Amino acid sequence: MDILRYVVIVLVGYLLGSFPTGYLAAKAKGIDPRQHGSGRTGGTNILRSAGRGAALATILGDFLKGAIAVLLARTLLDTDAAAVVAGLAAVLGHNRSVFLRFRGGAGSMTNAGVVLALAPHVLLLMAVAAFLAAKLSRTASIVSMAAAVTMLGGLAASFFLSLSPIAYMVYGVLACALILFELRPNIERLRNGSERPVERY
After folding, report:
1. Is residue 14 a part of any domain in this protein?
2. Residue 171: which domain range?
3. What is the pLDDT of residues 97-121, one digit of tens each?
């Protein structure tokens, strides 16, 4: 029975993550974000292609997808493993949405929603790291990487301090890997100096 519940948790988490928040927010303004900029449906590309309002709706929606996936998993099967599996499925769904021919974003905000539901104290560390990275670089990809790496370090430290289970640290490793994998083009542009900063809107 638990195996069936895990299957349901994975499917629900993936479908929640796949919900194309950014695509729909941009489409409401007659814009297909996949045809602009990076082609992603995350907050930064929506900001550049569809404006601040659509970007704010995208950020909020993507954040909630991650948090809701974990909370639903807790309802179906209240274990740390279930919460982690749901969170990973949501991040993967956001990055590779079944509704967008397996395209999407980089998973940063969906991951933040997952961390809120798993370990809110780590989210605070991520927010500080993201704020500092934004101030110093004004580059969205650096902000995303700073938040992801801080999450991993925070969840590892939290485990070693007996504040959270090892399952959360496993989540940190895998989620960080998923995000960095999607940011490979950005990392390449950072290396050659062509990565575009976020302008003021």
Report:
1. yes
2. 2-192
3. 999 999 999 999 999 999 999 999 9
